[in-house]
Structure formats: C-alpha cells, structure tokens
Amino acid sequence: MLRTVFVVVAVVVVVSLLAVAGAAAVLIRRPLPTYDGAMSLDGLRAEVDVVRDERGVPQIYAEDVRDLFRAQGYVHAQDRFFEMDYRRHVASGRLAELIGPQDGALESDAVIRTLGWRRAAEAELPLLSVQTSAYLTAYVAGVNDYLEGREASRLGVEYTVLGVTTSLADVEPWTEVDSLVWLKALSWDLSNSYESEVERSALYEVLQNVDQVDELFPAFPEAIHAPIIGGSSDFVASQVSSSEPRGAVVGSQAGGVLAGSSTAPTVDEAAAPTAAPPGASPQQAQPADGGLLGVAGLSAVAAAGEALRAVPELVGQGAGIGSNSFVVSGDLTASGAPLLAVDPHLGATVPGPWYQVG
C-alpha cells in the first residue's frame, strides 16, 4: 500500500513538472516572431522583401523609400518591441506605469518630467522637414502594423513576467513622438555636465571663491592643445611663450587636474573657508561666515544631485560617456575615398543600443 502511494505521488510530481515546463515553453515561445512567409500590409506602394542573414539581421529591399522605412518599423517591432516600449516609458517619465513604483521608478519619473524630455520632443515634431516627417510616419506605421491584433503577451515575455506583479495597461500604438523622445535620452547619455555643475555649486558654497572653483574646474587648455576646428599652429604659438609654465596641477579630493595657469591659491585663501572633511554632512561643510546660502543652499545642491542620480542607468551614468571620431583623407587610403571612424561611448545594455538592419 505504501509503495502504491509513493508511485502515485511520484507520477503526480512528474506530470506537474511537465505541465509547468510546457506552460513555460509556450509563454516564452509565444512572443517569438515568425520570419518565414508573406503578408499583406495596406498602404505599401510595391512589394518589399525582408531577408534575414545567418545572424538574424534583417536585410530590406524596397522600390520606394517610404516602404523601406515602413518595413524597418515592422521588423524592429518584431525583434524588440518590449525594449522600445520600456524606453519610451523611461524617456516620457512614465516608467512606474509599466513596472510599478518599485526600484526608484517614481523618483526617475519625477526627474525626467521635470527635465521635460517629452515636452521637448512634442515641440520638435512640427519642426521636422517634410521628407523626415514622411519617413518617420512610415516607420511608425510599420511598428503599428506589427502591433495590430497582438496583445502584450504576444509582444514580449517580459510583459507576462510583469503581469504577475503589476496590472498592465493595453499596449499603446507607437507615435512619432515616441521615437523623437528617445533622442532626448541619448542627448542626456552623451552629456554629463550636470554632474560638474552640481559639484561646482557645492564647492562654491564651501570655498566662497569663484577663482578657486575655476581652478578646480579649468577650461580646456586650447593654448597648449589646439582644437582641430578653429585652431592653428600659428594661433597656439602666439598664445604660449617659451618661458610660461605649461599648466599647474591643482590638487583636489578627486585627484589632480591640469589647469591652464600656474597660479595656485595662497595658503590664506585656501584656509579662509571651513571645508568639511571627507564624508562630512552638508551641515558640517558650512563656510566660516555662514555662506551666501548656508545650510539651506548646500541642502538644495545635495538634493539636486540626489534627484539626478535617480535617472535610470540606461540613460547615462558613469565615466567614459561621449564619442570619438576621426577622418582619414582619401590621399592616404587604398580606395582613394576618405574613411570616417566613430567610437560611440554608449553604456553596455542588453539588448544593445543599436539595432542592425540592412
């Protein structure tokens, strides 16, 4: 009798595991797109061929440019619509609507709505050229062609996972502003000057001396390193004398920085304010005379820095943000054509920031 019970329990466990595995396989595979076959889309001017290479990268062939962009929108939504939807929620200050209020989503939304990325994108839409607007509208139509008739669970397994803990709204159609708003996030990603602005404000409240703050944040030494555009060797030679020191290293907690002047603050100047020791609170960093803003000013600066740090990691935090590029003249290449090399310093994400399409 006991043996029979064990057998029955074992069978039930095995069947349950198989049922769970089968359900999981269905849920995971359900959103995967179908790459084979043909379909008809209203509005196409001619036939469009989409061929996937061995890596799954789509190659699109079309007779009409707008058909080309429409097909691009379709295959883009096929391959990574949840990523597109997630990013438009982030850039529009609506992340908490998608994933719930956890993980700092509300704080992120508050900062991004304050910065007004969505408002900026909406204001830019009417400024697009007629041609650009037509191509963008065609791309948007392609995205919505793929969304039509598909519920969230058929657009990405991520929606199924989120649905366990969050009440998901219906997936909204894609719009032109949804594409433009991510350009605001990319602009933020490639610009981290806000960090130095907050640091300058905090340092000024401590030092109460603009010149000292400027020495800690020196301008680019164009007299020593001429810019490619707008500079020349004659200009540099006229700005730098042979007897002038080539910059002084000014110490700071963040390390030495190259300044364009050899003038450093005197001992009396440096000792005038009461700077806080490393790790001190804003209240401990108040200048000896109370400062122009005092504790309230430092608290505002600290609050601004804390708020900006709430922006999600995928829109630019950390060192090395920016881009490098250089051009080689056709006189120096085997083909006789100039070469442009670009190295964008965008953060590593999964999926990556670029979508490959031919």
Describe the structure.
β3 (248-250) and β4 (257-259) form a beta hairpin. The termini are far apart. The protein has a two-stranded antiparallel sheet. It has a two-stranded antiparallel sheet with strand order 3-4. A two-stranded antiparallel sheet has the order 5-6. It has 13 helices and 6 strands. Residues 235-295 have low confidence and may be disordered. The chain has helices at residues 2-29, 65-91, 95-99, 105-115, 117-124, 130-147, 157-162, 176-189, 193-207, 210-216, 233-239, 267-271, 294-308, and strands at 49-52, 58-61, 248-250, 257-259, 322-328, 339-345. α2 crosses α6 (130-147), α9 (193-207) runs antiparallel to α10 (210-216) and α9 packs antiparallel against α13 (294-308). The longest helix is centred in the N-terminal third of the chain and has 28 residues, at 2-29. The chain is mainly alpha-helical and 358 residues long. The protein is extended.
Strand order of the largest sheet: 1-2
How do the SSEs run, as a string of H and E?
HEEHHHHHHHHHHEEHHEE
The portion of residues forming beta strands comes to: 5-15%
Main sheet summary: 2 strands, antiparallel
Helix and strand composition category:
mainly alpha
The rounded Rg comes to 29 Å
Uncertain regions spanning at least 5 consecutive residues: 235-295
Instruction: Report the principal-axis shape.
Output: extended
- Helix-residue proportion: 40-55%
Continuous helix count: 13
Lay out the secondary structure.
Blueprint: H1 2-29, E1 49-52, E2 58-61, H2 65-91, H3 95-99, H4 105-115, H5 117-124, H6 130-147, H7 157-162, H8 176-189, H9 193-207, H10 210-216, H11 233-239, E3 248-250, E4 257-259, H12 267-271, H13 294-308, E5 322-328, E6 339-345
Antiparallel strand pairs: 1-2, 3-4, 5-6
Helix pairs in contact: 2-6, 5-8, 9-10, 9-13
